[in-house]
Amino acid sequence: MAKYDRILLKLSGQALAGDAAFGIDAERVRELAADVAQVSRASVQVGLVIGGGNFFRGVASAAKNMDRVTADHMGMLATVINALALQDALEQQGVQTRVMTAIEMRQVAEPYIRRRAIRHLEKGRVVIFAAGTSNPYFSTDTAATLRALEIKAQAIAKGTRVDGVYDQDPLANPGAVFYPRISYADVLNRSLKVIDSTAVAMCRDNQLPMIVFNLNVPGNIMRVAMGEPVGTVIG
Question: What share of the chain is helix, strand, coil (3-state, %, to 5)?
Fold first, then answer.
């Protein structure tokens, strides 16, 4: 039996690129969709927020001298591309999915309306929240936290390339220390970069647990939903 009735899953845009530096890897998207579909079929209500780094980092050099607000809006649009790709893959798995965007673009997705999003979740649909918060200067980690609080998710699960939270980047330092559990305050005080500090502060203020786990291990999303000891619990 699942531990959570409703979770918010945060994925980086790079997760959709697979081993490539840029764009979308169709096979990787299919694998992620299969994992999310498994959780949805276990009667867990799933909200999703996806970053846009797989597209926007590809033009980062061109954006260096760009106005920050303009650059952030470009990043938001990249998240919509990723959301539509994952929606298509989920629906090929037989999972009803809705993309809701903070920036209105009615021809391709629904505008974000909190009560409508909750209703979709109650009907068993996966809801993908795209375009961040529509505001510049806010990361997709912060957007994920905001949406999780609005839909009353019981936890945020952030998928990464590593097993959880470490005191240093384990990809650069094999001697990095892993934390199976850590407080919000310690994440902030130690300036651990695994998740945006604004998002951590919001979770702390609202006592919303965060789970940071390795997305590259098949079945880990389901293990998180089941409450198995996977990754790092922040809270």
Answer: 40, 20, 40
